[in-house]
Design brief:
The chain has 155 residues and is of the alpha+beta class. Helix content is 30%, strand content 14%. Helix 6 (135-142) packs across helix 7 (144-153).
Length: 155
């Protein structure tokens, strides 16, 4: 419901495919588990030539509102490319292993996920290390204490 409510507040200037909203809202059907696909991609994906900005309309709108995209986007979207495996120890503690998402993590559906680009090296290239550029996402997934320890252990 949050995604639907946020979509209703998006200005068409930042939401290229706002006209694709119909009776099923921004979702592909009444189960409301997947967003609509417009020209092979999520309804929220603004294309590179869109005047309002390329990328996720929810992400752009959150930044424009001075808020974290984590609060606006579905968790499956903001968590990528981060995958955390939790391993329960005999003493009840857990060990967190941070890695990239892989198609196999999505089960049988993974093979058909053309948008899932986390297995390619281009998903991890930028001006800053992933541990820094995705700090908010890492903290949201693993918590502040685990993030601080992860940051301490990485160069």
């Amino acid at each position: 419901m949050t995604v639907s409510a946020l979509a209703a507040t998006l200005d068409p200037d930042v939401f290229q495919h706002h006209l694709a909203i119909d009776d099923d809202d921004v979702f592909s059907d009444s189960t409301r588990t997947n967003t609509k696909v417009v020209d092979g991609a999520c309804i929220f994906l603004n294309r590179p030539d869109f005047a309002g900005g390329a990328g996720c309309a929810l992400h752009l709108a959150a930044l424009n509102a001075g808020e974290s995209p984590i609060a606006w986007k579905p968790s499956v979207c903001w968590q990528l490319p981060i995958k955390v495996d939790w391993d329960l120890q005999e003493d009840g503690s857990e060990i967190a292993s941070v890695r990239r998402w892989e198609r196999r993590d999505w089960g049988d559906d993974g093979d058909s996920m053309h948008w899932c680009c986390t297995e390619g090296p281009e998903a991890y290239v930028g001006e800053r290390a992933v541990v820094d550029s995705l700090a908010d996402e890492l903290i949201a997934v693993v918590g502040e204490a685990v993030y601080v320890e992860l940051r301490r252990r990485l160069p």
